[in-house]
Amino acid sequence: MTAPVPAGVLAVVSHMQATTSPDLLKPSSPLSVDGLLESFRRFAERFVGRLPNLLAAIVFLVLAIAVARVVRRGVEAGLRRTSTEAYVHLLVAKLAYFGVVVLGLVVALSIGGVNLGVLVGSLGLATVAAGFALQDILSNFVAGIVLLLEHPFTKGDLIVTSDAQGEVEDIRVRATVLRTLDGQQVVVPNKLLFTNVLINSSATSGRRLEVIVSVPYSQDSLKTRESLSAATAAVEGVLAKPEPRVLTKDFGQGALELRLLFWADPRASDLLHVRSQVLEAIEAALGEAGIDVSVPQLTANVDIPAPARPDGRAAPGK
Question: 224: closest CA among 279, 275, 286, 281?
């Protein structure tokens, strides 16, 4: 004798049979003009229902853009009163402008009825994918922003890296443009300037230059030192402090090697031109003092014996 089945169980069984009926496996009815018109009508009704929110979102976005422009001008005006560079003014002003615009866009989308949770999730996935694809570009961009904010060099400075050297011609967000001493233009990614060792030759008001002078032992070294110091100090572009110094470098073969050290301002003078002027002044001063710094040339004659002939006799002419 079978037990009676409760009514609730019968309802569940009948529902399962209804959901698994073969009618669900039948293909859907083909599209018709009436169906398309009905879908368009429903879309139009929803659009008209949300039209006030859409208009409000557009008005809010326009106001946000106007406020962003005012904020950008205010930031630029405030930074002009500081000692920061014009590139920093432009960068901070643009960041403030885009920050206000993005905030206004998010609020406008919320007013328009956009699901911000779904939007943020989609943008998050897209940002991760773009980050992997544009890793180098983004790293150069971030490095450019940090360089502009930290201000390790400015336009017109002479900088030296492991891969390039030259005068800074332009500082961009992605790369820095250098002009080498021979006139070539070099574009250096900001990532290299940010992560590698950087020498700014124009950061200080003085650069030490050096000239090596070989004085034969037959000449008066003390008089030579005095002439070198006096001639160097009289050259335009050589700093008075620290004073030029003459030091002994080494005892060479047939001559005493002296090091002439002097200082020049790289921001006010061309260092190559100053060094050239110092060499010309040294040549003229030593000539007037009758000091000959030409090192005599030594000639060695070596007699190499001729190879013997197979028969043991000397080669002809020997």
Answer: 286
Q: How far is CA 211 from CA 220, 244, 261, 274, 286, in A?
A: 19, 11, 7, 12, 14
**What residues make up the domain containing 75?**
45-133
Cα–Cα distance for residue pair 242/234, rounded to 1 Å: 14
Verify that 128 and 60 share a domain, yes or no: yes
Domain boundary residue, one of 88, 108, 133: 133
Q: CB-based contacts of 83: which residues, under 8 Å, 6+ apart? A: none
Instruction: Tell me the per-residue pLDDT of 56-75, one tens digit each, with 9 for 90 and over.
Output: 888 888 998 999 899 988 88
Q: Which residues contact 310 (CB under 8 A, 6 or more apart)?
A: none
Q: Which two tokens stand for residue 281?
A: 């002044």
At residue 238, what are phi and psi to the nearest 5 degrees?
A: -85, 130
Q: Are residues 193 and 219 in the same domain?
A: no
Q: Which two tokens stand for residue 131?
A: 């980050």
The CA distance from 111 to 105, in Å, is 10
Bridge partners for 200 per DSSP: 159
Q: Which residue from 286, 72, 87, 297 is spatially nearest to 173, judged by alpha carbons?
A: 87
The lowest-confidence range among 1-10, 26-35, 246-255, 264-273 is 1-10
pTM for this prediction: 0.51
CA–CA dist 175, 188 (Å, integer): 6
pLDDT in tens, 267-297: 788 888 899 999 999 989 888 888 877 655 4
- Same domain? For 213 and 272 the reply is yes
Helices (H), ranges, 81-218: 86-111, 116-133, 135-150, 190-195
Phi, psi of 182 (to 5 degrees): -95, 10
Give how far Cα 26 sits from Cα of 21, 22, 122, 203, 272, Å.
10, 7, 35, 81, 89
